[in-house]
Write a structure and sequence with these properties.
alpha+beta; 4-stranded mixed β-sheet
């Protein structure tokens, strides 16, 4: 691993985000925008999150980011490994988190992943996002 890469599979540098925004493809729904860009050198999909102050105060933004990371982690094994991904939370994402919690975020992210065609054909068939029983 080179000194600049993140060990946790996250995009962290501004230039990485810019490349995904400018050269990648986007897919959106009411709550989220998903940008993807191929990165052949990546060992696993790398995630970047963008949650602006329009979403809410620091507590709300951090909760949205935590649930987005959790939802992404649950589907990460099904995704192609050669992707850089940026998820932008729209202001309505805070309402989604308040109303439906992790299940709502799972469903919104799963919808975008399905629309974008990011699932790996060789990945074992896991449960679709949003249909887990968290008990």
């Amino acid at each position: 691993m080179n000194p600049r890469s993140s060990g946790r599979g996250r995009l962290s540098r501004s230039a990485e985000f810019e490349r995904v925004y400018r050269q990648g493809r986007s897919t959106a729904n009411r709550h989220l925008v998903l940008y993807t860009f191929p990165n052949p050198s990546a060992e696993r999909p790398r995630l970047g999150l963008s949650v602006s102050r329009k979403v809410g105060g620091a507590v709300q933004r951090n909760r949205v980011k935590r649930l987005l990371r959790e939802a992404f982690a649950s589907v990460e094994g099904e995704l192609r490994s050669d992707q850089d991904i940026v998820v932008v939370a729209r202001p309505s994402a805070a309402e989604l988190v308040e109303r439906e919690g992790l299940a709502g975020v799972d469903a919104a992210l799963g919808e975008l992943i399905a629309k974008s065609g990011m699932r790996d054909a060789q990945a074992p068939n896991a449960e679709p996002a949003g249909e887990r029983d968290d008990g």
